[in-house]
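Reading a protein record of the kind used here takes only a little practice. Think of the row as the fold of the chain written in a discrete alphabet. With that in mind, consider the following protein and its fold in token form:
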Amino acid sequence: MKKSFIAILVTAIAMIAGGCTSKEEPAATLASGNTAAVVTASPTEAVQGEEIEVSEESAIGEDWTVLAEHEVTFGGLEGCTVRLAADAEKSGDDIMWDDSHNWVLEVETRDGIYRLFEQRVSLGQVYFDIMERYDEDGNAVPVILLHIDSSAEISTTEYTYDGGFEEKEVYREAGINRIYSSVPEYR
């Protein structure tokens, strides 16, 4: 017992003398009086990605569930279908969710299929928005925003269309522990 105490004491003195100290995380006091670590969310740097290539085949499997689909015109390219699907099977009207699924967001055009997103997402879901943003000359720029909402990560990726799709990560916060979300789940 005495040897253990001496070993602990020597280790503590060595750590202090060597400059090893614990790093305290900033904390916030909650309404309950408890404290919680503060995580400062910051958007990632806006880096333009490479242009997404056109494919001849869909990545969506025959037994996958299409969760959202919308027909739209992109920059004069009519008859485009934006489709979001997951490899979750359906039983009647119910979706059989597991802990993780493969997700695909693609745009089908007369030229082929642009596979914008193809990834496995654990304990979360994927959503998209279609919009037009206006450049400095007043021209409409077609945009698709992809949102990943999981228990450990939240991110938004932007896909702009100008004769082809280009990807840019807009925001990512990983390593989180989501406590609650009002975003509705697919049913």
Remarks:
- The chain has a mean pLDDT of 80.
- The radius of gyration is 24 Å.
- The longest strand covers residues 112-122.
- Helices lie at 2-17.
